[in-house]
Amino acid sequence: MSRRAVDAVFQGLFTLTDIRVMLRRTAPLHDLSEEDRRAVLKHLADLRQQIGILEEELL
Amino acid sequence: MRCTGDIEVRDLEEVAINIDPIQAGGRLTADAMKAIIAYGDGYSVCDNCRKPFRLDHIKKPPLDAFHHDLARFVGMDEARVMPGARRGFQAVADTYVEKGSPVLLTALSHYTEFLAIEAAGGVPREIPKDAKNIITADAAASRIEDVTREFGRPPALLFIDHFDYQFGNEHQVREIARAARAYDVKVMYNGAYTVGIMPVDGKELGVDFVVGSGHKSMASPAPSGLLATTKEHAQELFRTTQAKGDITGRAFGVKEVELLGCTLMGATIMGMMASFPHVRERVNRWEEELANGKIVIDALRSIEGTAILSEYPRKHTLTRVDTRKSFDRVAESHKKRGYFFTSALSEKGIGGVIPGATRVWKFNTYGLTKQQAEYLASAFTGIARENGIPVS
Question: What residues of chain B lie within 8 A of the CB of A10, using their CB?
Answer without folding.
Answer: 37-38
